[in-house]
Amino acid sequence: MAYSELVKDYGRIRGYMRQFIAYGFRSRSEFGAKSARSYDNEKRRVESWLGESMSFRRDKDGKAVFLSVDSRRIPRNPLHKSWKAASFTRNDIALHFILLDILADGQPRTLAGLLESIDKEYLAAFENAEPIDISTLRKKLKEYVDIGLVAAVKQGKQYQYSLPIDAVHLAGWQNAIAFFSEENPLGVVGSFLLDKYETQRSDMFTFKHRYLLFALDTGVLLDLLTAIHAQRQVELEMAGSRNGDARRVATIPLRIFSSTQGGRQYLSAFNPLRKEIAFIRLDSIIQVKTLEHVPDYEACQKRLEEALPHIWGVSAGRYKLQHIEMLLSVDPKDRHIVGRLEREKRCGTVESLGGNRWRFSAEVYDARELLPWLRTFIGRIVSLSCSDKAVENQFWADFAALEAMYEEAMHGEAMYRGDGDVV
Q1: What is the per-residue pLDDT across 47-78, written as a single tens digit (0 to 9) for each?
Q2: Residue 9 DSSP symbol
Q3: Pairing between strand 276-281 and 357-364?
């Protein structure tokens, strides 16, 4: 039987899902943050959402559960289901539908008018109905106004509430919403909208590269984007060590970066104490607390804009520029390599030296970030130099290790064939 208990604290279940799915697929014996009973309960809850998408393996440490999906057969992100398990009170759900029903006629109403309609037209039909307090109704209306579900217009000393008159009819947008729900980091919004359709096209899109784990960070991402829009400082509760310890960091959020290569999301933020730009992975953020408005927010944004031309990925190093240069030999029949250099050079430059020689160079804050990309040109690299000799040495050490690995493999293959020149 599926475990269908609703979730009060999404942060808690997000932590478990990171352990199950994102951080090594730990077994019960390896998961030390909570009790064994908590582990079993949360695992059953996750399995009830993900169904056939869950798999497991056994090793010496026990049974480890993990997510296993084939995008050809699962067109919708299964992790979106976790956001649809939020708990609510009877009053919450009743008040939601009563408000929408009252305002469905398009006529604006005051707070007092809404409360009177609720009491006389709805609650009066039930013998033991709990009355709605005016402060509760006021808070609910404010919540709905903030998210755009209800419109409020002040007339005199009172607000008139109504449904937004510019609400978009979504009937013709199903395909666009289906694409949004899978491609956008806030795609869970599209998933909720798709649930409103009686029939759903489940085979419209398939994806070669899908980053399902975006769904777990939706709440954190929304809080950060809200703070960025309001130009406010935030306090981040960050995941600590494996034993569950956490730490808090005050910072000024500036922009969200999403990797199209690795799928991770990063917050670029200005550290007010160190006066530096920092990059923070969203999946390491447990909770976001919005703080005061930042008066000189534009100045912080300017610091980021000034730094970006020298940031290759998501590291500003020590804010000391490093020059890195790679000389390539490209055969005329492999001119697609030059095209690739032009496409992928980011903040670097590419220039022809005549003949078959091409030079890539860049001035960056952290040259180590280029190493994985530079290695993809092995076989065509004539020379490589960097003002930080540690980076240069690391590249050639990696090259030597790769060369040794291939020599060992070739040696083993030759012995297997019985070649005469191998002892």
Answers
A1: 777 767 777 777 666 666 666 776 666 778 88
A2: -
A3: unpaired
